[in-house]
Design goal:
Strand content: 15-25%
Low-confidence stretches: none
Mean pLDDT: 90
Strand order of the largest sheet: 2-1-5
Shape: globular
Largest sheet: 3 strands, antiparallel
Distance between the termini: 30 Å
Oligomer: single chain
Structural class: alpha+beta
Helix content: 10-25%
Order of helices and strands: EEHEEEHH
Radius of gyration: 15 Å
Number of helices: 3
Number of strands: 5
């Protein structure tokens, strides 16, 4: 996310297996032997987008469990100019910043990997509230 609350999106290469040419919220891949989730995430962000991140002491904001695998979602707050990205050409063909309304519009238009709208909104909501999903009433 950037300081305006926009999420960095990436457009998958048009020849990729699975959702070619569609916009996605993720930068990621599989961990290799000896990796933990944090190390794999740092490596994949660097490989796919050319962004050096340090997730030391950072916990995933959300973990999505699926049969035999899990996806950890980390939030990184960073203002980076799109022209400063170094996209991995065989993985990513474009990148852009989008606010929640734009991401949901893209989803409705079929330009986005078919996530549930509530999931995209949850990510934006979690970011607005510092990753805290608890609401405390006084």
């Amino acid at each position: 996310f950037n300081s305006r609350g926009e999420m960095l999106l990436q457009r998958r290469h048009p020849e990729k297996d699975g959702w070619p040419g569609m916009w996605d919220i993720t930068m990621g891949g599989s961990a290799v032997a000896g990796d933990d989730s944090r190390t794999a995430a740092e490596r994949e962000v660097l490989e796919e987008m050319g962004i050096q991140v340090d997730l030391s002491g950072v916990r995933p904001v959300l973990t999505k469990h699926r049969p035999h695998i899990f996806d950890d979602f980390y939030f990184v707050d960073m203002d980076i100019a799109l022209e400063d990205l170094r996209l991995q050409p065989e993985e990513v063909c474009d990148a852009k910043w989008a606010d929640e309304a734009e991401a949901l519009r893209m989803l409705d238009a079929g330009e986005f990997i078919p996530y549930h709208k509530s999931f995209i909104s949850l990510l934006f909501d979690l970011h607005r509230h510092g990753g805290n999903i608890h609401r405390y009433e006084e």
